[in-house]
Amino acid sequence: MTSIDNDPLFTSLCNEKTLQSQKQGFFNEFYQSVAENFTGKSARWLQDVYQKVPSDKERLRLIYEDPVVAYEVQGTLEHVEPVFRGKDAKFSWQRREQALKLLSENKLQQALIIACQAVMRAPGQGVDRYIDKGLTLALALWTRAEVFIRQLDGKRALQDLQLAAKCGLPVKQNADYYARVAKCYALIGENGRAEVAAKLFHQLSGHNNYALGRLQEDLEDLRVLKQETPSVEVERSLPKLAGEGENGEILGASSKIKLAGSKEDPRGRYVVAAADLGPGEVILTEPAYAACLHAKYYGTHCSACFSRLIAPVACPDCCGVAFCSVACRDKACATYHRFECQYLDLMIGSGMSILCHVALRMVTQAGTPEKVLEEGKMLRDTFCAHTEHRDPEDHFKRTLMTAFLLRCLQKAEFFGRRTTEAPEPTEQELEVGAVLLSALQSLQFNAHEVYETRITGEHRFDTAKVQYIGVGIYRGASMFNHECYPGVTRTFLGTAMILHTSRPIPAGAVVPENYGPHFMRQPKAIRQRNLRSRYWFKCDCRACAEDWPQMDKLPAKPRLRCPTEGCGNALAYPSKPSQRNAKCSKCKQQINLDANVKMLEASDQLCTTGAEMMASQPLEDERVDEAIELMKKGIALFAQAAHPPHKPTLVAEESLRSCFADKGNANRY
């Protein structure tokens, strides 16, 4: 990778996209009102004053103190107030009644959707005693538990019943409660506990033998129905890393990779193979340092772990986000969400990008200003920001965004209870603001989009589509440099990133990632333009240097590899068998290419068979694993025989990604 060489207009558009929405939100109006002061005598204020301030902290201080902009900045920030959707007991009660009606009509999926709305909008115990005597949340959970029982989902029904009890539902003398608990245990196969709960029901119902008999019949019916209903849920876990032992340099990485280069190196620090790597090896399983869900998925995915919501658990105070479990909710509410809760809708309304939210999350999840400052040095050392190359107007916009986010933190009492309502920051607040501002710059180059695979039909692969659901920042993954022909494939499980090798990489060679522009999908000129303007470097990878054609224009046969050990020269594919005996122009040796041709034919057969296996029918997990092994062997054989690019091998590499993604965030819709 060489020095920055960008298209100023397109670069400006790319920078803008990483900061804010161009079509909506009040931040743009905020900026325009401040920028109006850069006219007349102050027309060169950005270049002559702002740009000459030496540090992010002092530039942030400047916008609060310099008379050219301070009045407009502070005047606007004074109006920052909480904006969020609160609870509504009446709405929850209405939804609960609708869910019960749908349940009586056996419309179970519709009943579940409405019951979930009742749970999300219900205030906590005792908040609104005029409706349900303050038990709206407990009764909403009670209703949803009945829906889950009818859907034969004993695990989630039991979780709702237990949560309802914690939210005030009377259970000590409640026979119906223990009847439902018994049904839950019967559904999850814990017959001993189901029997205990049935005995409690019997006692609390006044030893009503008839009622007990009916309950036992229900329990048996539920067991039979559960056995007849195949389970579609799959427990997923992170794969085991290749190699032995932990990597001491790269968080979450295999010992088979290592860091090379330095900050002074034009390529920076980057990852190379510490040992020979074959295709399909797991070289990274890294949890996100910070990750945020796209706002449009707040109602469908867990705000903490990004899993698909089935039985959402709400924040006690707002209805803006949902969690998949009490554990995720409690972790979020103990850290970042308690500061973001009442300002989330305001931030969305500002039009700020999701990268701005990730920058804020890097601060709020720390919990205290002291922890932010402690982490700040590590973040600056890890993630490049290219501050010295940034246009002064773009930097000023990011400073203004920092001021807005800092004001939200002030109002949310991240810094404790303040002695003044004025937005002007203290020294500690300025230091935290500088960490925020650095993150707003570095995330442009280091953030990764988190995706899930959406399966919309019967077939797992034919109907699978990638859907980006959030953005994360990863310390280890940020060390991988880009090439337009990557050596790894990126998948996710929750917010954790998983990197598998997609082709063989010899020890000492760079292990490249791909930042988006892939040679198969974009011509060189478009890739170069995108990389220069979005990531500020000119790519000089092999695909660019040799100007490889896109997928639909690839030649039928690849170039073969010289069989002489240590040579590796690329030779034209022989059109006739008689041309397989030749002299290599690099090593000057007489060579025979028969073995290469045979290996290539075997490689194509393996890759094609694996890809066809994926496309032929709905697959079981065992068949997916078989397809993976076939394609790994085919890709490895190709690397011995020939040079890329080659269509069957590229199809196999992409098919490998699909198989690995199927083992991560994959949901049926």
Automatic annotation (TrEMBL):
InterPro entries: SET-MYND_domain_protein, SET_dom_sf, SMYD4_SET, TPR-like_helical_dom_sf
Keywords associated with the record: Methyltransferase, S-adenosyl-L-methionine, Transferase
Position of the signal peptide: none
GO biological process: compound eye photoreceptor development; methylation
GO molecular function: histone deacetylase binding; methyltransferase activity
One of the record's GO cellular component terms: cytoplasm
The protein's name: SET domain-containing protein
Gene source species: Anopheles quadriannulatus
